[in-house]
Amino acid sequence: MSGTTLSGTALSDGAAEHASRELLRLATAGSVDDGKSTLIGRLLYDTKSVLADQLSAVERATAARGAAEGEVDLALLTDGLRAEREQGITIDVAYRYFSTARRAFVLADTPGHVQYTRNMVTGASTAQLAIVLVDARKGVLEQTRRHATVAALLGVPHVLLAVNKMDLVDFDEATFRTIADDFAAYAAGLGLPDVLAVPVSALTGDNVVDRSTRTPWYDGPTLLEHLETVPVSDLRADDELRLPVQLVIRPRTAEHPDYRGYAGRITSGTVRVGDQVTVLPSGRTSVVTGIDEFAGPLESAAAGRSVTVRLADELDISRGDVLVPAGARTTLGQDLVGTVCWLSERRSVLGARLLVRIGTRTVRALLREVDARLDVDTQTVELVSGVDTRYALDATDTSSDAAPSALGLNAIGRVRVRLAEPVLLDDYAAHRGTGAFLLVDPSDGTTLAAGMVGPTLLDRLAPTAEGESDTDWLAGAGI
Fold it and tell me: 151: left (phi > 0), else alpha (psi -120 to 50), else beta?
């Protein structure tokens, strides 16, 4: 029988091959009119990821606009989203899916306008690579620097600078080199580890999928070649195990009367039958006796896989607990210090009661302090005095009289949050899966901010000043 079997159902060779392809998550960013829609359309079109009826609709729409016969406006493949926005439908990030013989791709298409900084944070939060577009006629703009800063803040390991519209500057090498050098200098200041610049024309397809004959001076990979070969570093199978528990499975059926499994997605590392693991935050240990998934039992499972783990002991484990290797050096605590991007139109309120969602765990908390804000335009950090003084602010107040330490929409700052109970505090730089968190309004479930635990770019630009500790600030707080 060809292929593999999944719960007794045979998969075709093609389906099995597709399922085994490595996955790359990427995000696109660029200023308005830099050609991002055309570039995405070109990738979809040239990788044959466009359905026939969708392509026919685009061809008709192109012809209706008076285009020459046979011409296709590839930007129209994503223009439906703009129409929805014009009708008042809010869409933060649009996701596109395509694949080649070598890889499958999930592309987060993020809006380019300055007021949508928060949307790039959302789209790039899980990205392994960011494509930053610039117009070859305009060069590196403030918005380009802003997108590079957000990518560095989120720890995106790879950045591809797509110098677009090279056809409008006659594929001039000097223009490309100047832009590439300007961006490289800025990226170096941010600490971005891997940056590649590619000269492209999304409109004509030069160096997007196929190599261009009009850039003989460029000997690097095409855009798609780089996407197919860049190392995938998000799924860290060799890193230390982190398995946040999402669900405890107890079927209690005649077939499985005593089955007790702990289901979740492995965010890093590898779990094997026979491994000793510790359950956090309780600290209890046990041995892995079985690993199950829909297709059947496994001997081991690596990062990115959703599995159910069985243990030798009947421990008190619930949603929000995390399985780590026995003896691992971890940090448990109630004082969460991290960098956040404020996603809500409601301002931050010092002393406000919040919910913090970190991994699969949700705990009550207080916003203790805002002590720094990042200016993404100037790459500088403003230190502020944001210690909780126990007064209430109007969260909807956007006047200049609002507290100077407050964070407003799209602001990026450093906060200290006091949690009602200890949780695993992994640094985001080491464990993106368990080092990210959300601040949530407990009254209506609105997401107020997305954050990263531990040191980030913001801390490197403005190290926290040492000061006296305040151990009694929670007196009377009621948590």
Answer: alpha
- Report which of 112, 104, 101 is spatially closest to residue 78, judged by C-alpha positions: 112
Q: In 87-222, which residue ranges form alpha helices assigned H by DSSP?
A: 117-124, 142-153, 173-190
11-15, 84-88, 261-265 — which is least confidently predicted? 84-88
Higher pLDDT, 119 or 103: 103
Measured in residues, the chain has a length of: 479
- Contact yes or no for 402/384 (Cβ under 8 A): no
Strand, helix or coil at 433?
coil
Which letter, b or e, does each residue of 270-300 get, where b requires 16 or more Cβ atoms within 10 Å of its Cβ?
Answer: bbebebebbbbbeeebbebebbbeeeeebee
Cα–Cα distance for residue pair 59/430, rounded to 1 Å: 47
Q: Are 305 and 269 in contact (CB under 8 A)?
A: no
Nearest to 99 by CA among 91, 109, 107, 108: 107
Instruction: Determine what percent of the chain falls in helix, strand and coil, rounding each to the nearest 5.
Output: 20, 35, 45
Which residue type occupies 116?
Answer: Y
C-beta of residue 245 within 8 angstroms of C-beta of residue 264: yes
Give the H/E segment covering residue 332.
strand 332-342
Read off the pLDDT of residues 233-251 as tens digits, 9 standing for 90 and up.
545 667 899 999 999 999 8
The pLDDT confidence band at residue 75, using thresholds 50, 70 and 90, is low
Q: Please give the backbone phi and psi of residue 256, each rounded to the nearest 5 degrees, phi first.
A: -130, 70
8 A C-beta contact, residue 279 and residue 320: no
Question: Beta 353-358 vs 361-375: how paired, if at all?
Answer: antiparallel
Q: What is the pTM (predicted TM-score) of this model?
A: 0.79
